[in-house]
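User: Please predict the structure of the protein below. I'd like the answer in C-alpha cell form so I can feed it into my own downstream comparison script.

Assistant: Understood. Taking the following sequence of 285 residues as input:
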Amino acid sequence: FFFFFFFQAEDGIRDVERSRGLGDVYKRQIKAYLAKYILKQITCEEVAAEDLKYYDEELWKSVEFIKSNPVQTYIGTFTTTRKDSFKNTSTTIALKERGDKESITEENKAEFVRLLCEYHLVESIKEQFEALHMGICSLIPKEAIRVLDSEELEFFLCGDHEISLIDWKENTRYKGVYHKSHPVIKWFWNILSKLSTSELEKFFQFCTGSVRVPIEGFKGLTSNNGKLCGFSIESKDYQNEELDFLVAHTCFNRIELPIYPCIEIMEKAIRKIISTPLCFQFAFE
C-alpha cells in the first residue's frame, strides 16, 4: 500500500520531497511512498475512480456501487463531504455550480463520478500537491519526469515491490559457521521458495525494515546511515524451539538464524514471523 502525509506547512512538504530526491541522488532508499493518485498527477495522467481506493476505501466502494448499479431512486445530489480530521468538522461541497440542486440520475452519474474524483484527488489537495511538486522539481528536471508514467516514477522513487529470490540469494553473505552449502542455509532458501508473494514481502520487511527492494536490486541495500550494506545471515546457537527465534538487525540488513536441527522447526519459526507481525523479534545495534 502507499502512504501520503499531508502537512499544513508548505515548507514541510517541500522538505519531504527534497529528502526523497536526495535519497535518489545518494542511492539511499526512502522508506515512505506516494499514493497512486499523487504519482499520476506528477506525471500529468488523469485520475480515475479506481484511484479513490488509495484515498478513501469507503468512498471508493460507494462509487463502485453507483457505477455498477442503475440509479432508479433518489441517491443524492452533486455534492460531497470534506472532513477536517484536525478540527473534527465536515463541510458539504458542491461539485459544480448549483450542484446541491441537481440530483444524481442514471444519465448523469458518470459526470458525478468524474467530478467527485477530481475534487477529492485533485482540488482538495491542490495546495499541498503544488508544494510537493515544487520539492520534486527542485531536484528532478521536469523534462526527466515527462518521459515517465506513474508506474515508472514509482519504481525510481520507491524501488521494486517484486522480490527476486534468485537476486536475494546471490547477494547474501554468510557469517559464523554458515556458508552457501550449509544444510541449514539450504533449508532456509527452500522454505522461502515456497512462500507466496505477500508472505515473502512480509519476511523481507522483517529482515530489512523495508517493503521495497532498491532499484539496483539486493546489491543496493543500504544501512540506516545510507551506506551500502548487503543482506547477511549469521549463525546462532540453538537451544530449544520455545526460546530460539530469528533475530533481525534491520539497520544492517542482517538476521541471526539459529542452527535448527530440522527444516520443520525452521519453517514453523518463519511462518510464525509472517503470521504474527506484532511478535517480531528485533535486535537493534
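That's the full C-alpha cell string. The first strand starts at residue 79 and ends at 84.
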